[in-house]
Specification:
The chain is globular. The protein contains no helices and eleven strands. With 114 residues, it is mainly beta.
């Protein structure tokens, strides 16, 4: 059974950077579409970015040019590099693995505050 564990969240000032990691166990991610979503308090979960098995990527307009999704299949890990962070990026960031069975991680908190 696939399990996803996010890490790398924390408190950062506006304009700062963080790199989130999503580590998988239970099966390889190399053939899976992987994505990051986020959910802010009182708001619906929203798409942030995805990366396919052949490393094609897509981003939400709100993060385009600031966030970069990548994967390291040897480490069975997906990353989200977040630069130029804004107050509105504050949310719980969740990792998603597509496939026959969709899997979500529990999330990691990102707080952008001065």
């Amino acid at each position: 059974q696939l399990q996803l564990v996010e890490s790398g969240g924390g408190l950062v000032q506006p304009g700062g950077s963080l790199r989130l990691s999503c580590s998988a166990s239970g099966r390889t991610l190399s053939a899976s579409l992987m994505a990051w979503y986020r959910q802010a308090p009182g708001k619906q979960r929203e798409f942030v970015a995805f990366i396919t098995s052949v490393n094609a990527t897509a981003y939400a307009d709100s993060v385009k040019g600031r966030f970069t999704i990548s994967r390291d299949n040897a480490k069975n890990t997906v990353y989200l590099q977040m630069n130029s962070l804004k107050f509105e990026d504050t949310a719980v960031y969740l990792c998603y693995a597509g496939g026959t069975i969709i899997t979500w991680g529990r999330g990691t908190q990102v707080t952008v505050s001065s």
